[in-house]
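Friendly challenge for the regulars: who can give me the structure tokens for this chain first? No prize, just bragging rights.
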Amino acid sequence: MPERTDTTTPWYVRVMLGSAGLIAALFLLGFVGIGLMFIVQSRTLSMGVGLAAVAAAFALFRAADHKDFAAMFALAISLAGQLLFAYGLFDRLVGFRTSAVPFWVIAALQTVLVVVMPNTIHRTLSAYAGGLAFAYACGLSGAGFLAAGAIATAIAALWLQEARFGSRQAVAMPMAYGLTLAFLQIEVTSLFWWSMPAAPGAPVAAGAWTWVGTALTDAVFVVTAGILLLRAGWTLRQPRTPMALRAIVALCVVSLPAPGIVACLLVVLLGFSNGNRLLVGAGIVALGFYMGGYYYLLHATLLEKSVVLLVTGLVLLGARWVILRHVMPREHADA
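First reply, four minutes later:
Bragging rights claimed.
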């Protein structure tokens, strides 16, 4: 029998339930810390009780049968257990601020939870936490430039294959949403000192490697656009196809100093191609935050930042003009 899912629940209800579950988890964790101090004082016991709580939440999810209260209670137990496990893990590994090991462990744990937990909200939160843990692990391993490109590849593959998920949609869709949120946070916060590639204690990558990371995200954007053009019936023999690809590459080149622009546009493109308004809205909001932060917070002169934004805007307007005038004339677009 296929797994039952709660896909009929509106997304905003899931957001409220997830927020309530997180708040309940914090209160539950506070109760454990105050009433059961001996658990918190033992690293091994903290990790063991945390994993036991996650297992209990799994059993409760299986027995909840789409009952909102039981599902939220199970979510709170699982989140509290994961926080308790992470506390014991970080406390056990001395010098965790400069070690990627605990973040790799958390990323692996979240990957398992995405697959096994029979709850959409939990799977989304696990994918989100796993994406952030992966980014921190890459940063502390000296490969922070790979994080955004790897996650961009994952979300592009997931959203482009949405129609083929079938029975796996219960796992794939929450994973896609969670990784997309993590990807947007990584890119938008790249302007701040607490960004993922600049995790505390992370080795500072050389400038060339930073450009490699940006190029990976740009490559995912170009390949995604190319796949969507082919799906729309465009062929490489048509003059409009190379013209459109050149415009996309030009956009990637001029926005190299502000890589978050292409990252947010990738999310908008994936959402538009799937008719997903939530994804389009998330990409647009993230783009607005990034451009505002880029203009006011980046360590560059106002003239330099203004030139980057101006040139990027001109390229976008020029690409629109080329598409409407030469690639898709009005008589063909109306047809």
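The CA atoms of residues 107 and 130 lie 4 Å apart. Residues 1-5, 331-335 have pLDDT under 50 and may be disordered. Your move, everyone else.
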